[in-house]
Amino acid sequence: MKIERRGMMRLAGAAMAATMAISGTMAVAQDEPLKVALGDIASVESLNLLIAMERAGERGVPMEMTFFNSEDVAVQAVLSGEAHIGVGAPYAFIQNSEAPIRMFYRMSTLLFFPVVNSEVYSDWADLDGQEITVHSRGSGTEALMRLMEQVHDIEYANISYVPGSEVRAGAMLQGTINASIVDAANFRLLQEQGGGKFMRLPLDGVNATDEALYANQNVLTERSEDMQVFVEELLRTWNDIAENPAIVGELREQYNLLPDLPADLVAEAVPYYTEADENGIYPLDGGAPQDARDDIAFLSAAGQVSGNPDEVDPADYWDFSVLEAAKAAN
């Protein structure tokens, strides 16, 4: 499997090509690898997806991963045809642009930890008029923090965007940011290395998708067989990890995945997936129409989309056909 990194310089070209993708004039080549666009840095959290991609390759569906600088750039790559599959939950983008992309596999649910330096802040009220740092524009981390802004009747002075939970945790340890939101592994890191000064702010009653896989509708149709194989391997990998999280470490070595990860992060892989399984971060069913309604309820409350979740048509955002075919094949 090929892994590449692209940057912000791709945005202009991808945006220009988006019109071609939307109008349906771009052909989908049947013999090229399925290309996945990830708007994030390479991390332990990517391992389950990378394993599923390797397994799909073993079944005759070669795949490539490209890491982009942001989810915005990744979605444009999917629209332009530069990539076939994106990683994210682009509800707002779909609603605002009416782009012909649909989510097809629910990778993870939202479980994040709003964290502050307790020497500076002690509760949500203290963040009124202050700066916070989240993953990226339109991400689940931003939605959560926007929702808390409403719940606690506060207004942030500014929101900064720093991709990578481990990067934000590192910045908190260095003292360059004092309020952010991180995943379970990096919250544990802050507890272990922060000298007791980092505290978690309460976050209750949130149930929503963190990341899903999405694709152009023509890709889902014209490469349905390849996509089905990929989804079958996603389901298998998610279930294998739930049964035995240690398999992540074994398969990382077997496939030589992310070989440049520092040793301390490699050591975190199995504990991370063990904790993720205990917290139900990685659902085993790949998603369902009710998930779309729950997502709209959350995102509308956070001010990122409009509409009544009771009236939403999941087909406006999701295509479950490949997932249903993959489940029927197992």
Largest sheet: 6 strands, mixed
CA radius of gyration = 19 Å
Low-confidence stretches: 5-27
Number of helices: 13
Can you put this structure into words, describing what you see?
By secondary structure, the protein is of the alpha/beta class. It folds into two domains: 194 residues, 3-Layer(aba) Sandwich (D-Maltodextrin-Binding Protein, domain 2), CATH 3.40.190.10; 88 residues, Periplasmic binding protein-like II (D-Maltodextrin-Binding Protein, domain 2, 3-Layer(aba) Sandwich). It has 13 helices and eleven strands. Strands 1-3-2-4-11-5 form a six-stranded mixed sheet, with helices on both faces. Strands 9-6-10 form a three-stranded antiparallel sheet. Strand 2, helix 2 and strand 3 form a beta-alpha-beta unit. Helix 9 crosses helix 13. The longest helix is centred in the C-terminal third of the chain and has 20 residues. The chain is globular, with a radius of gyration of 19 Å. About 7% of the residues have low confidence.
